Amino acid sequence: MKYLVTGGAGFIGSALCHRLMQAPDAHVTVVDKMTYAANPASLEAFAGDSRFCLVKADICDLSRMLELVLHEAPDVIFHLAAETHVDRSIDGAEAFVQTNLIGTFAMLQAARALYERGDKPGFRFVHVSTDEVFGSLGPEGRFDETTAYDPSSPYSATKAGADHLARAWHRTYGLPVLVSNCSNNYGPRQFPEKLIPLMVLNALEGQTLPVYGDGSNVRDWLHVEDHANALVRIAEAGLAGECYAVGGDSEKTNMEIVTLVCELLDARRPGDAPHSRLIEFVEDRPGHDQRYAIDASKIRQDLGWTPRRDFAKGLADTIDWYLANEAWWRPLRDAVYAGDRLGKVRA
Ligand SMILES: NC(=O)c1ccc[n+]([C@@H]2O[C@H](COP(=O)([O-])OP(=O)(O)OC[C@H]3O[C@@H](n4cnc5c(N)ncnc54)[C@H](O)[C@@H]3O)[C@@H](O)[C@H]2O)c1
What we know:
Elements (H helix, E strand, L loop, with lengths): L1 E5 L4 H10 L6 E6 L19 E5 L5 H11 L3 E4 L6 H6 L2 H24 L6 E7 L23 H20 L3 E6 L2 E2 L8 H10 L4 E4 L5 E3 L1 E2 H14 L5 E4 L4 E3 H15 L10 E4 L14 H7 L7 H14 L1 H10 L12
Parallel strand pairs: 1-2, 1-4, 2-3, 4-5, 5-6, 6-11, 7-10, 8-13
Antiparallel strand pairs: 9-12
Helix pairs in contact: 1-7, 2-4, 4-5, 6-8, 8-10
The chain binds nicotinamide-adenine-dinucleotide.
Nicotinamide-adenine-dinucleotide binds next to helix 1, strand 2, helix 4 and strand 5.
């Protein structure tokens, strides 16, 4: 099998590459612009492996994507490349509009050219999206594949637009597109601007742990390896034109997450305990969605996927990974992002 993974040097994309490369016959080409969010160290396990190739390119470059996709002729394109941080989208939405909308358009056009060439009848395009496209839930209910789109942030609005393009390329051109809408991921190799790695690294360095608003916002957490398995199942067995909601049945408030991180670090670094003394409530994110939760019945029943990772154990393993892999994150903290507040100003 030949796979092309856009955004493969990012958090979920690199986890997917590790999952795909477990199959001895898998060939993986990553297309990544290597933005601030990419880390070549996430893919160093495949250095020198003839089954793996990293192409530095911008998915917005339509002629380059056409040439690359037609030349590589993958069986599956997993499209993950995106600008992904909500706070950065509040400060500057343009890169989000470019990559998430124009870039998705270019990937769909390139995929269409390959599919219409006719020599890859089993071709599939897996468009990787988020539950944030559905907006905010109250205390009850969960998102599923029938939930209406209602995005709140520039990030989620561009992801919603990209989902609509992907669905339209199926309905209009018959491109075998499958869409996944997944909840919040955690695990190794996540860029330390996102909640869990930011809290872990700030706590390790004795910096404050900023909790937005009153910390009551709820997210449904899924280990990145479970997400990678879901994407593989969708590519293998999903129905073209269908969407799949993916989640871990693991709802936690942000405050619960930060408290758990502190407790796990107290056990590992007792000399600095209690790490909870570093918690500081800060001004909320503008347009902060209150709650996300996923009803993943469809992918569980139709595709036999189920999350394997228990959250408490998965979080402990994640913290241990950051403790053991300072060489992965230290250059990011020192030279790319030191943990300062983003996305505060209401436009
Ligand atoms: N992180 C989550 O919790 C989550 C949940 C559901 C869905 N998703 C979606 O999964 C995908 C991957 O998310 P992530 O958390 O791994 O993101 P990430 O920010 O860690 O990685 C994104 C990758 O895309 C690359 N990229 C950005 N712009 C590009 C461009 N123009 N051309 C080529 N490459 C480009 C970056 O260099 C980076 O390697 C995204 O589409 C995101 O919307 C993320």
